[in-house]
Amino acid sequence: MRDQTLKYLLVAPAVLVVFATAVWPLIESLRFSFYQGRTDRGDFPQNWLGVENYEWAFLYEPAFWNSVWVTGLYTVITVALTTLFALGLAMLLAPGGKLRSGVQTLLILPFAMSPALIGVSFRFMFNPEFGLFDAFFGVVFPPLADVSWLADPDLAFAVIVMADVWGWIPFLTLVLIGGLASVPQDTIEAAQVDGASGWRVFKDVTLPQLMPVLAVVIILKAIFSLKTFDQVFMLTNGGPGTATQTLSHYIYITSTRYGQVGYAASVAWLMVIPMMVLTYFYAKFVFKKD
Amino acid sequence: MTEQSTPEIELSAAQSAEFWTGKRKQRFWRAIQAILILIAAFIMLIPIIWIFLAAFKSHVEVYQLRLFFTPTFENFGTVFEDPYDLGSKLFNSTIVAFVTVIIAIPIATMAAYSFSRFTLKFETTILVVILATQFVPAVVIILPFFIMFRDLGLLDTRIGLIMVNLAIVMPFAIWMIKGFIDGIPMDTEEAAMVDGSSRLQVIKNIVLPMAAPGLVTASIFCFILAWNEFLFALFLTNREATTLPIGLALFRGEEGDLWNLLSAAGIIIMLPMFVLALAIRKYFVQGMTMGAVR
Fold first, then answer.
1. Is residue B2 part of a domain?
2. Which of A12, A16, A103, B147 is the most exposed place for a label (fewest CB within 10 A)?
3. Which structural domain, as residue segments, surrounds residue B142?
4. Average pLDDT value over all residues in chain A
5. How far from B213 is each of A123, A275, B45, B181, CA to CA, in Å?
């Protein structure tokens, strides 16, 4: 068989699978979003609604705006905290040696944990009666001694942020250690010989060199923060009230509990748009290398 | 300044400024760093350790903040009994993750080889689309499948779950394996072709054996992704095909969370993944970033 034919035959099954499992549902969701699509009626979808689902979300659904706000705030805070902590930890661990590479190995563990299980473990850690973190914060900061974290809107939000940051620091740290390793050592040494302080070396030499890697991890983390669902479902299930209801959770509730799949699809598509922008920038970084 | 300096009390102001430079200062910072690293490691591990401890506590002891207790294996028995029946979830998780990988890896390998060795029309576009599908929120993908499976009677089946899991696994598999094949030099292949081997023989006899470690790595990575998948299983299953992560919800009884059982189930979910992840730890970052970071 000629390579000219073979090369397309080899790619065809993969393209088909990706099309069927990702591209088709994406388009089908877009179609649903213009219909009244309730699961409690016989045929699906029902009436053509045009952009009414979108209008409904924008104009008449405070719950939608609430989840936009929760997701936005959650994304900004988790991206910032995870990146900062991971950068610090990566700087600490980068030099290598027994202790450091041992800790690096351990970093893989939280990342292999199911996010649902991370949610469960943090609900455990913040249990008002026998949670370890709850007890710890109670000692360090007495006003928090007797609070029930997951029953307070702000504190529940803080807990889902902590669970997410905890789960993602290891991965970002490992990526950044890789990035730090590619910063040329002689440039750093040259700056040190010139008498630059540790901080100056970091700010003027290391950080600029690290920028491409930092950009990649920030985009990647932002994408995963926007999609967050598993831990939220297991930790707070969006509560108390809707204080921790992310967009994914809102879509889950409207489609399964209220059976409004058409409306849920319109909200889901509103989520796809920022994702596409982020993916565009991410793809630029991936292909720049080749 | 050397380490055998004069006693600290006798230092003048100028000397004490000097005291903090050189080796002492370096040692001080090294100690601070070591302490910070240990604290970080401790924070990373403590929720995991806590689950491990709780899994061996009795249902009385789990409600106490105690470090020392008489360990019991009782919980690991209870989770497999009625009404929890974790065994069926373990079976579902294993089958679903395994079959997903078995389907995904050969298909991904074929595509990865082609992307790596040939120039295709719209190659960049196809690769970007494959990359982008990974970032589509799972809730968007699941809605049409939910409707379709409802009509086809595929809700709450393992087959349905395997189909949607391919959506998660395929992009990672293609990109990861492409990375491995990119790393295999082409000269052996070319030499074999000159000697009269066909392209398919070359793939079978040269590329596959050389790519084997990479294929195993990608399989393990995809297995972990499928095993930990939560949202699809939550939408699509309720009794027959529920997987382990969904099974965690079983232990939220009327009287609150059954922490000792939750922890035992948690260990059953995470321990095999820890072993697998440690086995491929060098490639974890590469896999997750799909080659954006090398």
1. no
2. A16
3. 79-289
4. 89
5. 39, 33, 30, 11
Name chain B contacts of A120, Cβ cutoff 8 Å: 248, 262, 266
Cα(A35)–Cα(B32) distance, integer angstroms? 61
- B150 with B245, same domain? yes
Smallest CA-to-CA distance from B256 within A131, A158, A230, A249 is with: A131
Q: How many Å lie between the alpha carbon of B10 and the closest alpha carbon of chain A?
A: 29
Please name the helix (run of DSSP H) or strand (run of DSSP E) that holds residue B257, with its range, or none: strand B256-257
- Structure-token match 């009327």, residue found: B254
- Burial class of residue B18, CB neighbours in 10 A (0-12, 13-18, 19+): middle
Same domain? For B197 and B125 the reply is yes
In angstroms, the CA B280 to CA B285 distance is 10
Q: Tell me which residue in A92, A234, A268 faces B137 most closely, judged by beta carbons.
A: A268
Chain B contact for A197 (CB, 8 A cutoff) = no
Helix (H) or strand (E) holding B252: strand B252-253
Whole-prediction pTM: 0.90
A92 inside 8 A of chain B by CB: yes
What is the model's pLDDT at position B20?
58
Query: Does one domain contain both B155 and B200?
Result: yes
Beta-carbon contacts of residue B183 (< 8 Å; ≥ 6 apart):
B214
Distance from CA of B26 to the nearest CA of A (A): 12
Residue B242: inside a domain: yes
Amino acid B12: pLDDT: 53
Phi–psi pair at B257, nearest 5 degrees: -75, 135
Task: Kindly tell me if the per-residue pLDDT of B224 is higher than 70.
Answer: yes
Domains and CATH numbers, chain A: 62-288 (1.10.3720.10)
B78 touches chain A (CB under 8 A): no
| Beta carbons of B110 and A24 less than 8 Å apart | no
pLDDT for B15: 54
Q: Once rounded to an integer, what is the mean pLDDT over residues A141-157? A: 86
What residues of A are in contact with residue B144 (Cβ under 8 Å)? 24-25, 28-29, 32
B120 with B263, same domain: the answer is yes
Q: What is the pLDDT of residues A211-262, one digit of tens each?
A: 888 998 999 999 999 999 999 999 999 889 899 999 999 999 999 888 899 9
Cα distances (Å, whole numbers) of residue A124 to A96, A257, B260:
34, 26, 10
Q: How far does the CA of residue B164 sit from the closest CA of chain A (Å)?
A: 6
Distance, in Å, from the CA atom of A259 to the CA atom of A46, rounded to the nearest integer, reads 13
